[in-house]
């Protein structure tokens, strides 16, 4: 299996400003985890693509597996080092759909009603994966079962849990927290916590 260590882990300023290391991977969510039935679970890829695609759970397991090691930085100031995820790399999506030139950003849709937006240059990055395992075990319900996005270079509100949709958008529209005052991008090293 291909193994990616996020380049954020070897930065000389590895801990972003205003963050502290914690020994617990805390659970943060807008509601309890949704009930999931893998046989009816679907991942939809739509928006600025030539043909939308709907993947079943079996389709997802057939995508090339990759391991990612990356620190996790929550905007509420805790950071957890060296989290181990397994899933598929975002480049797999380019093999499944033809993304139109008009696409500028993605909106990730989740089964709890959560959404978050990411510009394409941050989404299609070397260390961005969709994960279904955490520290070698199936993703626990609280941490995003069955599938979550991991974007190590941005605050972890961008790492959407319970993902059910990837929407390619012609402009960068704000998601759930971005509409409620969080920064439109969320780079921890520039302390982009809030939009005010
Ligand atoms: N679907 C969904 N994804 C989400 C959230 C959420 O409420 N719903 N919270 C975000 C926030 S604010 C953080 S800090 C991380 C927390 O991930 P964890 O609970 O696995 O530590 O998930 C992010 N992804
Ligand atoms: Mo968060």
Supply the CATH class: Alpha Beta
At CATH level 3, the topology is: Sulfite Oxidase, Chain A, domain 2
Helix content: under 10%
CATH architecture verdict: Alpha-Beta Complex
The helix tally amounts to: 3
In this structure, how is the largest beta sheet organized?
7 strands, mixed
From N to C, what is the helix and strand string? EEEEHEEHEEHEEEE
List the ligand species: ligand MTE, molybdenum atom
Mean pLDDT across the residues is 97
Q: What's the overall geometry? A: globular
Whole-number tally of structural domains = 1
Which terms would index this structure?
single chain, mainly beta, Sulfite Oxidase, Chain A, domain 2, seven-stranded mixed β-sheet, 3 helices, binds the ligand Nc1nc2c(c(=O)[nH]1)N[C@H]1C(S)=C(S)[C@@H](COP(=O)(O)O)O[C@H]1N2, binds molybdenum atom
Describe the protein.
The structure is a single chain. This protein has 196 residues and is mainly β. It has a single domain (2-21, 41-190), classed as Alpha-Beta Complex (Sulfite Oxidase, Chain A, domain 2), CATH 3.90.420. It has 3 helices and 12 strands. The protein has helices spanning 57-62, 91-96, 120-123, and strands at residues 2-5, 20-21, 42-47, 53-56, 65-73, 78-89, 105-110, 115-119, 129-134, 137-138, 148-150, 163-169. The strands form 2 sheets. Strands 1, 2, 5, 6, 9, 10 and 11 form a 7-stranded mixed sheet that branches. A hairpin with a 4-residue loop joins strand 7 and strand 8. It is globular, with a radius of gyration of 16 Å. The site of the ligand Nc1nc2c(c(=O)[nH]1)N[C@H]1C(S)=C(S)[C@@H](COP(=O)(O)O)O[C@H]1N2 has 18 residues, from loops. Residues 28, 74-76, 156-157 line the site of molybdenum atom (MO).
